[in-house]
Amino acid sequence: MITSKLETGHLFCLGYGYTAQFLARYLISKNWRVSASTRSGDVSQTVEGVLLKPFEKLNGEDFDSVTHILISIPPTADGDPVLIRNQNKFFLTSKKLRWIGYLSATSVYGDAKGLLVSETSPAKPSNNRAKYRLLAEKSWLNLCSACQFPIHIFRLAGIYGPHRNVFQRITTGNTQTIDEPNIKFSRIHVDDIVKVLFASMVKPAAGQVYNVCDDKAAIQSDVLKYAADLLQIALPRPVKLEVAKKNMSPFQESFWRDNKIVSNKKIKADLGILLQYPTYEEGLLAIFKKRLF
After folding, report:
1. Collapsing DSSP states into helix, strand and coil, what is residue 91?
2. Strands 50-54 and 45-47
3. pLDDT for the residue 4
4. What is the SS3 assignment for 98?
5. Can you say how many angstroms the Cα of residue 254 is from the centroid of all Cα atoms in its chain?
6. DSSP letters along 243-255, please?
7. Model pTM?
8. What Å distances lie between residue 72 and 133, 134, 155, 229, 230, CA to CA?
9. Of the candidates 186, 112, 202, which has an alpha carbon nearest to the alpha carbon of residue 152?
């Protein structure tokens, strides 16, 4: 349960994907106003209480009453889309802006050879997507330092939650169990991401970087087996990573290059976070019980 004395505000989501939608629903339940940019459609429309506006048609007036901004549009080789279009200039029109959150990823750390990484660890991204993330982080931090914008960077681990989880992949046969006991992955339930974001809104600290993950990094086969046991179905015979890579896309293969355990001590120490789903077992069990897959 998230509790605070934060007054209601106006959140603008630049990018309205999975995580942004969950944050929006939570804030709307607390009587917040929420707006978001969208790449689809040519006119503004209200969907489930969120005012959706075409990304290319945003202007300064859209940010006049905004108190909080969430940026979740992924960067490209050309850079951050918001910065490319110079839409950050609109932030200057908001007289009430108190918080900006930028959603990045723990992939910026690259391969740590299975060791623990924290926010003070060097970032050594090993693929282009992670390199673009890190460059976008630096661009936002530099800009916000120069313009006194209250930026916060959130490096998210692998996101799962309702209708985005391993149950779907298992039941559709769209996965394979990989026999690789030495590579662990960190994860985070979307509800706990919302908890972290809101806690940062309550206690803003401009310029801070936060890892967002649960307490238990785990190998892929353990997570699949746990989910399969709940479903009471058998998994296909495990295959070695070297064999599995032959059927992977370059995108899929890139996830297996990095091996690290991500520390979440800072969100606990600085933001007082008590995770609702401290490991994948609690998170998947809750999803299974409600059949949210």
Report:
1. helix
2. antiparallel
3. 53
4. coil
5. 18
6. HHGGG--HHHHHT
7. 0.96
8. 11, 14, 11, 34, 33
9. 202
